[in-house]
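Have a close read of this protein, sequence plus structure tokens, and explain what the tokens say about the fold. Thanks in advance:
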Amino acid sequence: MIHFPPKIILVPMDLLDPSFKALSQASLLAEAFGAQVEILHVLPAPAGSAPYYWDQTPDHKRRREAVAAIRRRLPTDALIDVLEGDPVSAILHAAYLRRAGMIVMGSHGRSGWGRVLFGSTAEAVVRSSPVPVMVVRGVPGTIHSILAPFSFSPYALDAFRYAGKLAKKLDARLTALHVVSKGETPASVGRRMRSWLKSLPRGLKHACRARVIAEERPAAVIARAASENDAVVLAVHRHGALRDAILGTTAEQVLRRWPGLMIAVPPARLSSAAERTRRLKIARVT
């Protein structure tokens, strides 16, 4: 289950500028939410070691050097933890162990064929995280307007409600966007959208602006509409391993197209299932 507002915000960091932009954005959110920011730095595992970071302990010298390098650039005394191994596995597992309610990270990733073949760390975390992931790519700042694209499905409703709660907490304008698919009519979309708006927090449903666009490329439409807002909240839904590997999820496609602030929200059922799976994995290695 996804809890809002988050009490702990996990910020994975390296020593590059996108990570420090993510930390600045996370600090603004933490102030608004009354949350605590915790920093995670992942060291590469030694050659030939097990791929799972949780049975690897960085030696004290490497740990001290990593903490000192990050601390020199920090304006705060936030908690810094250092782990070792695969970055994506470490971030997801640390989020579970810390009971983080949100992950905030920068994205520099790869470009061209490197991204197509391997993806970026941010995209991999977005795809598998059991908690919302905020990806910061622009200049950190206050969120005044939020775009909430959605389809009429249970997993999209989870993200839509999350966007509503976020907008209310931040006193931001919310725009609901639906991209019409084959077989839908404007009338049917209008009826269903009015029903969905009723699920928003009290006091927000009447302030929400609704938009319906007929277009066959959802990611392109969302990216264009996002440019009119400070942030976009998207549902993460897996279509199948092969299709995801080639095209990516809609959230990942938007991430590649729009250099702004994106919050990817997993389905509530995925969050619960992932938590049970991680408990089993921890039991096997401890």
The chain is about 45% helix and 20% strand. The radius of gyration is 19 Å.
